[in-house]
Design a protein that fits this description.
Rossmann fold; OB fold (Dihydrolipoamide Acetyltransferase, E2P); 8 helices; globular; alpha+beta; translocase; ATP binding
């Protein structure tokens, strides 16, 4: 099942003119605040009627300006996860979860409530009301309510933006499970590179109302000319597998043929994961360094150097682990004699790879 979107709508300051395809899995609408992300998702939800365009989910037309079709939200068969959760305060968790079923067609394939409750770990919360829940617990209940509406499409508008870092870390694995367990498109709005790296099957980059790029997270986050969050958020996304957990609190991974050591993560050996390594956390050396505290040292070949108007340079390395990026000063790049084809070593401190930068690998075929 896929989602096809083509929209045109006048907004203050610019015209939204966007078109993209969202395949099964989790598609992130990625861009700066004010780029049109929420307008797009509200148009898909039926909360905003665009001036022109066409929206089709799984072959079902939700909106077509030329044919005069504009289904109301309740008929669009979607689950919407809002930033604030928007649970009914007078209902218990169980009643909030059941509410979504009111809008599901009688003949629709329904999720089993017991399975959803177990997946989200909310069985002990069923008799509570929203005022008795933490922010992370509210977010999990909101995900469950969306799932139990038997949706053909799931929308999430910056669902983690209102949460602090510990709560974000708590909720991210549930969105990974949602991505891998549900066979409907998920359209997810974010301006966080870390969320995109962990969750996205597909990334759609929006800038001033236009789709500038669409593709895989690893490709788009590694190019400062593409990434809407700028050079500070540029980094590599590597596919890795957990080898073992060591008694000193480190987890050993293998990415390609290169070993990495990171702070312990609570996943079983053999599990496939994505790791994000920010370019500003990588140092470079022409010769393999000795006497360093850093445990992760990978040799590679310089693919490309990208310099902007400032003092920095992004160095792209082809390594046995995959593409790794380093952000260094132009002065350092010149002092090291870096150029395309030159071999050097990437150095990454173990503690630079934070738990929120490690996520479950996408289980969908690429």
């Amino acid at each position: 099942m896929t989602l096809s979107v083509r929209l045109r709508h006048n907004l203050p300051g610019f015209i939204l003119d966007a078109a993209f395809e969202a395949p099964p899995g989790l598609t992130v609408l990625f861009g700066r605040s004010g780029s049109g992300k929420t307008t797009v998702i509200n148009a898909v939800a039926g909360l905003l009627r665009p001036q022109a365009g066409r929206i089709v989910a799984g072959g079902r037309v939700l909106f077509d300006s030329t044919q005069g079709i504009c289904l109301p939200p309740r008929q669009r068969r979607l689950g919407y996860i809002f930033q604030e959760g928007r649970l009914f305060p007078h209902l218990t968790v169980r009643q909030n979860l059941a509410y979504g079923r009111w809008f599901a067609p009688r003949d629709a394939a329904r999720e089993d409530m017991g399975r959803v409750v177990e997946m989200l770990g909310i069985g002990h919360l069923l008799t509570r009301r929203p005022a008795q829940l933490s922010g992370g617990e509210k977010a999990r209940v909101a995900i469950g309510r969306a799932l139990l509406a038997a949706p053909q499409l799931i929308l999430a508008d910056e669902p983690l933006a209102a949460l602090d870092e510990p709560r974000k870390a708590e909720i991210l694995p549930y969105f990974e499970r949602l991505r891998d367990a549900v066979n409907v498109p998920i359209l997810y709005v974010s301006h966080s590179a870390a969320e995109v790296a962990r969750l996205a099957t597909t990334v759609v980059v929006l800038e001033e109302g236009r789709v500038t790029h669409q593709g895989a997270a690893a490709e788009l986050l590694s190019d400062p000319r593409i990434s809407p969050t700028g050079v500070r958020e540029v980094g590599a996304v590597l596919e890795a597998r957990i080898v073992t957990h060591h008694t000193d609190g480190l987890t050993e991974l293998i990415a390609g043929t290169a070993a990495f050591f990171i702070p312990r993560i609570d996943r079983a050996p053999g599990t496939s994961v994505r790791i994000r390594i920010a370019a500003h956390d990588v140092m470079l050396a022409r010769d393999r360094p000795t006497g360093l505290s850093a445990l992760n040292i990978v040799e590679g070949r310089v693919e490309q150097l990208r310099s902007g108007t400032g003092p920095g340079t992004i160095v792209s390395l082809d390594t046995p682990a995959g593409r790794i990026l380093a952000r260094v000063t132009r002065r350092s790049a010149e002092a090291l004699g870096l150029a395309e084809g030159v071999r050097c070593h990437a150095i990454v401190k173990s503690v630079a790879i934070a738990p929120q930068d490690v996520g479950a690998a996408d289980s969908l075929p690429s």
